[in-house]
């Protein structure tokens, strides 16, 4: 029990840890609002307020995060020309997303003209969706590379083979969690780029948000 508490403290000390927790609040409240809207309007109103507050607080907490893309490219540009190419577009899309998200937040809290919100939301979501496409491609390339390496390790055998194989499997799980999160967030971005009955439905958005939050929770949880 104490070990779990210690891990929770470490998790919540991270920016991403707090973000995943508040994202969980945001999308649970979205589903609660949808479920209670017709039968319990008072409860639905409170759930909607919780959803909006959670969404705005996440945007404020992510201030300056667009700069992490530059640091990621500087520290880990990719091991091959293809991966470097994909990383540039993936991180560029994410930087556009986080940068214009600042203006979306400011317009929604009234610091900027509220009419800017729709345009900022579209640009931010477009950059987000573009980044996710490239991130997913990178993860699938690395998963395929890991499978090939695992086969070589298992074929060679040896004392360190089991440990190396275990390490590769653990990395594959993390990348699959990243793919799940990115695909889920891509669906949410599509709801802003091209509104449609499926992507914009409260259940689709709610489930997608929770898949993204919990996948990120798993990836950021201290080992």
Plain-language structure description:
The protein has helices at 2-13, 15-36, 41-61, 68-75, 81-108, 116-156, 161-193, 202-220. With 223 residues, it is an all-alpha fold. It has one domain (2-220).
Summarize the structure.
The chain has one domain. Helix content is 83%, strand content 0%.
Main sheet record: none
Shape: globular
Annotation, overall tally of beta strands: 0
Low-confidence blocks of residues:
none
Helix proportion? over 70%
From the structure above, extract its key features:
single chain; 223 residues; mainly alpha; 8 helices; transmembrane helix; peroxisome; membrane; (wild Malaysian banana) hypothetical protein; identical protein binding
Topology (SSEs and partners):
Blueprint lengths: L1 H12 L1 H22 L4 H21 L6 H8 L5 H28 L7 H41 L4 H33 L8 H19 L3
Helix pairs in contact: 2-3, 2-8, 4-5, 5-6, 6-7, 7-8
